[in-house]
Amino acid sequence: MTSDTDILRTIPDGKPVRVFLPLFNGLKHFRSQCVYKETSPPEFELTFKPGTLPEGEIDLKKTCIISIDMGGATTSLEAVILQVTGPQTLKMAIQKSISHEQMREFFRVDATTNVISKSFHPEVFNTDSKQWSLKGQTVDISGSGILAVFSKEPPGDAHVRLEIVIPLAEPEIVEVLAHRVRTQKMSNGLYEVAYHFDDITTEDRDKIIGCCLIIQRKLLQLKVQVKNQ
């Protein structure tokens, strides 16, 4: 079995990676591109462009997520921040690697926010289909899809456009192309629909993942508070 340390050795020195760093205020994560520097596994370094790393705002007691594109396959790591070793440089240590399936679960959180499901340009396909729009509420959200509730069953189009309000301190709307995975009519007459994202920009996916990290952190904090009471 490949160990987490062995995974580090597969990452080329100087490889650009994406990182989500926890901040003290708890309202958001710092999302940035940086460069992986090989040192002595399980330790490594991340270096940032001058002036981009908010050194005084990073919560060194919390873990962060690092995403590495390995030529088609994405490797994700959870790591601890050991120290700030210099200007725009963090000394890190891997805590564990995260598989694709674990990533989907890790970033899926319960979240209620507005979503609009719309027809996907039916005029492009020269059909008689009518354009439609249906407002709903998300039940949970992840970087790969959502579970949402609607008052009516959405039409069975092969693809739909979703406009999702990301519940950040300053809400943002992202638009994705998705397909319906399943639909279930509930006892209260509402329809629960699962959508999988088919086309989403890297920036918008990062926004969703960052939001999920914030929500997950708040849920963990609440769990600790309840446990300590």
Quick summary:
By secondary structure, this protein is an alpha+beta fold. The chain has helices at residues 4-9, 100-106, 202-228; strands spanning 16-22, 29-38, 43-47, 64-69, 74-86, 89-98, 109-110, 114-119, 133-141, 145-150, 160-166, 172-185, 191-199. It has two domains: 4-106, Pnp Oxidase, Chain A (Roll), CATH 2.30.110; 109-218, predicted glycosyltransferase like domains (Thrombin, subunit H, Beta Barrel), CATH 2.40.10.220.
What layout of secondary structure does this protein have?
Blueprint: H1 4-9, E1 16-22, E2 29-38, E3 43-47, E4 64-69, E5 74-86, E6 89-98, H2 100-106, E7 109-110, E8 114-119, E9 133-141, E10 145-150, E11 160-166, E12 172-185, E13 191-199, H3 202-228
Antiparallel strand pairs: 1-2, 1-4, 2-3, 3-6, 4-5, 5-6, 7-9, 8-9, 8-11, 9-10, 10-13, 11-12, 12-13
Key traits:
229 residues, alpha+beta, Pnp Oxidase, Chain A, Thrombin, subunit H, 2 domains, six-stranded antiparallel beta barrel, six-stranded antiparallel β-barrel, 17% helix
Q: Give me the CATH fold name of the largest domain.
A: Thrombin, subunit H
Mean pLDDT: 81
Radius of gyration from CA coordinates: 20 Å
Total strand segments: 13
Q: Low-confidence spans: pLDDT under 50, at least 5 residues?
A: none
Instruction: Describe the largest sheet.
Output: 6 strands, antiparallel, barrel
Q: What structural class should be given to the helix and strand makeup? A: alpha+beta
Strand order of the largest sheet: 1-2-3-6-5-4
Portion of residues in beta strands equals over 45%
Helix and strand pattern: HEEEEEEHEEEEEEEH
For the terminal residues, how far apart are their CA atoms?
A: 41 Å
Named CATH architecture of the largest domain: Beta Barrel
Helix coverage percent? 10-25%
